[in-house]
Design brief:
19 strands; 8-stranded antiparallel sheet; 6% helix; mainly beta; 316 residues
Length: 316
């Protein structure tokens, strides 16, 4: 009898120690590169027979840096989906990207995220010209983290306070800067501009007459970029013509797709406009150089370098 009572007591003890927690399955894709399907908005990672993917609108990934400590945040829902799959053999993009994915290998298990937040931190990818220290943006790295995500597994829910999906890299077309550096003055204002195709570079100075006086210089005339002396780069959806600059109303087409404005300069340090004037026949040639100028759009910026030739302006 005592033996039976001991066995019952042991069983009760074991039952009491079982708090009902479900088995925690470990999934880790931190060392796997993220890829995107070319024909749909799916970002995925593949590791052997496992796959982790996000279905999310492309517009979520803005071509801009995020401010430190302020990532993009979107809720996990019917628009922003996170799914984990396990197969009975190694998988490839053919199991996720085609309209009709490959049927093999066979799907063994699937988890759907039912709640949580997707956090995205964006950083610009820049290349640097070692000769003049200019930089250009060639893409953005998006670091993706899931916060308080709940996966619904076949055996029950599994929760992660923080789950790192990793980096997703998206390349962009660098700005062409296809200017010939022969600039013109607007017929209807004191703006100076250069344009090529859909690119426009404009310089609007408060004291045009002084900076571009028809007098030969021995040392360059200078001005700082500020609220009165503005430099802007614009990119349009189509070709720009001279008529665009004096239109009474801004034409509907082509449309503006990007605008980068120079940040204010610091005396003797950055954001400096230099103008050197020489004679040219019966007229004058003004050579405009930009020293340590940085252009900014949103939270992203790039440098024109130590010394950038904006162009030459001929006046009479």
């Amino acid at each position: 009898m005592k033996k039976i009572l001991c066995i019952l007591a042991l069983l009760l003890f074991i039952t009491a120690c079982d708090d009902g927690n479900l088995t925690v399955d470990v999934i880790d894709f931190s060392e796997v590169a993220a890829q995107k399907c070319s024909n749909k908005n799916v970002i995925y990672k593949v590791k052997g027979a496992e796959m982790l993917f996000i279905e999310i609108p492309a517009s979520t990934f803005t071509n801009d840096q995020t401010v430190d400590g302020s990532p993009i945040e979107v809720p996990i829902n019917s628009t922003n989906k996170v799914t984990y799959r396990k197969y009975d053999g190694n998988v490839t993009s053919s199991n996720i990207c085609p309209t009709v994915p490959d049927a093999t290998p066979n799907l063994k298990e699937e988890w759907h995220a039912t709640s949580g937040t997707i956090q995205i931190t964006s950083t610009a990818i820049k290349s640097t010209n070692a000769t003049d220290n200019s930089t250009r943006i060639s893409g953005y790295t998006y670091n993706i983290v899931f916060k308080n995500i709940t996966f619904q597994k076949p055996s029950g829910p599994q929760v992660y306070e923080t789950f790192t999906f990793g980096n997703y890299v998206m390349m962009v077309n660098p700005l062409a800067f296809g200017f010939n550096h022969e600039v013109d003055k607007s017929a209807c204002s004191t703006k100076i501009y250069d344009f090529s195709g859909g690119e426009v570079f404009t310089l609007d100075v408060a004291d045009y007459a002084a900076l571009f006086a028809n007098e030969v210089t021995t040392t360059p005339r200078t001005a700082l970029i500020n609220s009165g002396n503005k430099l802007s780069y614009r990119l349009y959806s189509g070709t720009i013509t001279d008529a665009y600059f004096c239109s009474a109303t801004i034409p509907v087409t082509p449309t503006l797709t990007q605008q980068w404005d120079a940040i204010d300069g610091i005396a003797a340090t950055s954001g400096i406009i230099e103008v050197s004037t020489t004679t040219l026949g019966t007229g004058f040639q003004h050579t405009i150089r930009l020293k340590n100028v940085t252009l900014k759009k949103g939270n992203s910026d790039f440098s024109l370098g130590n010394d950038y030739l904006f162009g030459t302006l001929i006046t009479n």
